[in-house]
Design goal:
about 120 residues, alpha+beta, six-stranded mixed β-sheet, 3 helices, 6 strands, about 25% helix, about 50% strand, globular
Length: about 120
């Protein structure tokens, strides 16, 4: 059994960076199809989207060129779950967006999984 320790901030930030790196490489759909729990949701302005629809939505998306994570905060939820919340800045060509994001991770089956992701304009 893996227990959440003081390494939780590093672990959850590593998971969050892995998602961003997959998006930058054009593999966001593949990553989230694997990383999200079966009943996970991604909440974006105006919609709550399930795992399968999230994976498909990345197919036609132009990847971001760069991202930055600012002001990360970690919230522990028992022994096998946690939330990483932060301000993100992402760029694609001349477009820059700033978002407030939070991702709830649960540990199971030997790895961390996204149970809920939320993003809104900062």
């Amino acid at each position: 059994m893996t227990e959440i320790t003081d390494d939780l901030p590093a672990i959850l930030l590593r998971e969050e960076h892995a998602g961003w790196k997959a998006i930058l490489q054009g593999r966001g759909g593949e990553h989230y199809a694997r990383a999200m729990t079966r009943d996970a949701l991604m909440i974006v302005p105006g919609a709550a989207i399930g795992r399968d629809d999230i994976a498909r939505s990345f197919a036609g998306m132009v990847p971001w060129d760069a991202y930055e994570i600012h002001e990360p905060a970690i919230v522990r939820l028992g022994e096998r779950a946690g939330i990483v919340a932060y301000r993100a800045v992402a760029t694609r060509g001349d477009e820059t967006v700033e978002l407030r994001m939070s991702t709830t991770y649960v540990y199971g089956g030997g790895s961390w999984h996204v149970a809920l992701h939320q993003q809104s304009p900062a």
